[in-house]
Amino acid sequence: DSKVETQGKGCDSHLRVTAGMSAPYANAPVSKGIALVTLLASLASISSKHPLSLHLRNPLRALVYQTAFSSASELIVGMFLLFQMRQFERHWGSRRYGSFVALSGALSASLSLSSLSLFSGSSGLPLRLASIPPGPYPLIFASLVQYHFDVPVSFPVSVLGIPLSDKSLNYALALQLLLSSPPSSA
User: Which residues in the chain belong to E strands, given as ranges?
Assistant: First the structure.
């Protein structure tokens, strides 16, 4: 139930709804912080000539390369997906979600550095990996796994025989994000 209050008199009265609408990041301070840091770091990275990609020449970048996207299109799609995944913090609580963020980030950084050292040019393996693109991809795709298993389909539809749902847009955007910036081999 929402309250409707009137202010003023006569024709100049304004209606104000006091309940029923909440702020986008209400009860999600970790998600709000991640979104703010990602937005500011991405804007700084996009405007500079030095993206935060991870490579072996500077392994300390493993601490910050997951905070910024390297292009405006990745930023828009990634921020939308991060916004959609804030529901996990509301469901799990900030402490558990913060642990999930820290664990997925630390695991991804260690696996990224390991794969860079394993597939570097001096390893003798036919596959070469020179750098890993920047961005909070580990958090987005780890959250997408949780999204797949924990969020039920609300509106199943079939378009030209292809089964779709309300979750299909998020999967399509995640696929676009995945294909927009693959790891480089040069």
Answer: 4-7, 14-17, 157-159, 162-164
